[in-house]
């Protein structure tokens, strides 16, 4: 296996408009594992009244709001109805392949959203490929004017004006104050949105941190999308793991706050990554490779997407779900080449632990 693992910040600017915002990605030249494993990531930043124009993509993804609030619209080709939701910091929103979406910052502060997902059907492996309905890069500009007129039941003069008015716009624009953005639907939010920041943690350790997750059990659409997500908050010096993805899925993680260290062990016990990570960087965990994340003195938070609708991990850490705890004492004694007393002591420590460990006092 020839995987180049590293932690990187977004290094490719797709679009950047002063006073409006920008969209940034991780290039496959600097982060080759994206194209190798057909996964992708994108970072959207919008200033107040900034709008990412309606578009669809050739792959599914999960959006996570790192900062700010947003009004998002989603139109599924399956029923052609628009669902408008208001999302805020900590919210996750799955976007299925082919779904038309738009994103609007209606607040007074900056909006930051990270998109993580698969790119298995992409034209360009390792990148989300977008098709914009409008703007200078919009699909309308590719069709002859007379066909647009016929398709929309307009005369040539009307279609020419329609094309001219939108053809000079960027894919990110600032909405005029007089334009009213649609109201969000509470029922759509309950069906599509899940807040990881406010969710009841599935793991919570005093002085250690919390682990929250969202899967197809919480949001049914994730079963169709084939993805799930989790959020980890580690307090200073705390450790997550070792754990591994136990269902052939891979994991893509984005550091939302703080810094720390990531260690990943691959085949034959070889360390494939031992790196410092910080806010804004992303790291990748191959399937079945156990990994550990350790927070620095300031703590660390990160959001991860798995290429599976379920959150299934093998825990090689402490805790009731630990594989070490489940293993027979005699097998551990033989495998670790230890005495019965040391094996018993080891299992007692495992039983008292958790997948998140607070800083050691010793």
Radius of gyration, rounded? 23 Å
Strand percent estimate = 35-45%
Number of DSSP-assigned strands: 24
The rough form would be described as elongated
The amount of helix comes to 10-25%
Fourth-level CATH superfamily of the largest domain: Jelly Rolls
Largest sheet: 11 strands, antiparallel
Structural class, by secondary structure, is alpha+beta
- Uncertain segments: none
CATH architecture group name of the largest domain: Sandwich
GO molecular function, one term: nutrient reservoir activity
Domain Cupin type-1: 3-160, 194-344
Protein name: Cupin type-1 domain-containing protein
Family: Belongs to the 11S seed storage protein (globulins) family.
Task: List the defining traits of the structure above.
single chain; 362 residues; alpha+beta; Jelly Rolls; 2 domains; eleven-stranded antiparallel sheet; seven-stranded antiparallel sheet; 8 helices; 17% helix; elongated
